What does this fold into?
Amino acid sequence: MRKTGKEIDITQSSNDTSADSRSIRLVTKSNETPEGDGFIVHRSFPSQSIRNLDPFLLLDEMGPLDLLPYETKGFPEHPHRGFVTVTYMLEGRFEHKDSQGNTGELGPGDVQWMTAGSGLVHSEMPEKEFAKNGGRLHGFQLWINLRKIDKWIKPDYQDVPSAKIPLIRTPDGKVSVKVIAGNYHDTKAVINTLTPILYLHFTLQPDSEVVQPVPENFNAFAYVISGNGLFGKDKTPVQEKNLIVFKNDGEYISIGSDNKNPLDVLLVAGMPFNEPVVQYGPFVMNTKEEIDKTMEDYRNGKIGKIEF
Ligand code: CO
It folds into this structure.
């Protein structure tokens, strides 16, 4: 039985939609990779097995990294053009600056949705007061492509503090969800996206389950932050620091926890563009010529400099 539409009562649908629950295409462990000035990230993709997951280009779990007092590891000045970077902090504080003159801070639960568009140069470093005392830095960075028609738009920020991000709890208290992008039932995220994106952070108490509607053509993945999850139609067990990529074979994604531990998991999905992707590091365009032009622009300082 097929169901369509966004407003679906999960309590009803979870009983009769096994035929529509997506199965798993692959599970892959994230790789420790040094980034920035030596900050260790756990990169899920790109990797040898996954070039990208249209429209998603990269997923990094930043840390967790324990900084000593006055130790400052982060992501010093670097450019971006042609896509969106989404930073979601779990622990610690980052400070960002960019070539447009913007500056801001990101603390636990905060999200920065940065549309690089035509390009900018920015830095993301531990915030000064936080760095004095040291502590744990932990978060996520997701890169989302822009369509050809959106690659040259003016850079834009949505800096959203944790308190403004909708947090929903199920009546039985067993599942909570932070709605970073898209919607959970009729609760909509406060962040605007140029193309349809779903970005949810679920916390499941032991022995719980969620069934999330996701349009069948959307590419979708989950990432286990902590705990042991049971994913997809076959309830495949997957442990922390693993990425689960779903097949496009159903309109629901099912996620469960085991009977021992809580489960923290990100669920991300988006409408694919099916456009050519030519990437060179922090530049993502549609053709080799556009990449060459971008490198030239960067060398000539046309993407910007941080002047303060
Ligand atoms: Co960056």
